[in-house]
Amino acid sequence: MHVELESIRDTLMARIKGEIDLATADELRDIIDDRLKKEKFKAVILDLGGVSFIDSSGLGFILGRYKKIKDQGGKLYIVRARTSVSRILELSGIKKLIPVYASENEVFQN
Amino acid sequence: MVAGVKNWVRFEFPSISENISFARACSAAFASQLDCTLEEIEELKLVVSEAVSNSIIHGYGKRPDGVVVLEITLREEKTIDIVVEDKGCGIEDVEQALQPAYSSVPDRMGLGFVFMQSFMEKLEVTSEVGVGTKVRMVKSLLPSGEDYGD
């Protein structure tokens, strides 16, 4: 698993690559939460374009970030989820809570 | 080999989370002998990941000294049988554990068994407190060229 963080105006972009499961979810959480502690963002975008697999541990990571960012008054978005990942997001009900877009441009336009 | 069994494999590995991706990859590679669709492979990877994660998190409480057993049997009639077993703490109330959104661990979504029930035709959970848990999942795969549609 690999994650690149980038600040775009008042938005934190997290480009994640690899698989999100029990072995990687905690590290991912710590990297993102550490950045959220240091800087204030109005929105966080999780770019899942490079994510080839996600299970319920990965969904727990996403839901945890959603709650944290919401508590800080911000919004969480998901972009570029592959079909297999998107299906799991749908089945879990996460899509009802977190807006999912095809690209970050769509987030900024909306 | 037992009649009706095309092939089988059995792995034992320590209860460390790094082995979850190993279990997924092995399951996917082994099941591909049955000419599965990509969607079926993705589903098998997910249910194996959930069952092995459950053993590590709930069975052994993330202790690394436990052993998880994964056994996969491919049958002639294109059926896959997956067993994940641990000698961990066991589940006190299996019926409760199978309920959607139930989790004994905070910050977990309680979706593991939901995914196993959704993607497999049969899910059997046998458990005894202090002895361990055995999860058996069975699925008939589609003949080549077909898909599940909506």
Chain-wise SSE layout:
The complex is a heterodimer of chains A (110) and B (150).
Chain A: E1 2-8, E2 11-20, H1 22-38, E3 43-54, H2 56-71, E4 75-79, H3 83-92, H4 94-97, E5 100-101, H5 104-109
Parallel strand pairs in A: 2-3, 3-4, 4-5
Antiparallel strand pairs in A: 1-2
Helix pairs in contact in A: 1-2
Chain B: E1 5-14, H1 18-31, H2 38-59, E2 67-75, E3 79-86, H3 94-97, H4 112-119, E4 122-128, E5 132-140
Antiparallel strand pairs in B: 1-2, 2-3, 3-5, 4-5
Helix pairs in contact in B: 1-2, 2-4
Could you characterize the architecture of this molecule?
The complex is a heterodimer of chains A (110) and B (150). By secondary structure, chain A is of the alpha/beta class. Chain A has one domain (2-109): Transcription Regulator spoIIAA (2-Layer Sandwich). Chain A contains 5 helices and 5 strands. A 5-stranded mixed sheet of chain A has the order 1-2-3-4-5. In chain A, helix 1 links the parallel strand 2 and strand 3. In chain A, helix 1 runs parallel beside helix 2 (56-71). The relative contact order of chain A is 0.18. The mean pLDDT of chain A is 95. Chain B has a 5-stranded antiparallel sheet, covered by helices on one side. Chain B has 150 residues and is of the alpha+beta class. Chain B has one domain: 2-Layer Sandwich (Heat Shock Protein 90), CATH 3.30.565.10. The longest helix of chain B is centred in the first third of the chain and has 22 residues, at 38-59. The interface between A and B is medium-sized, with 16 and 22 residues.
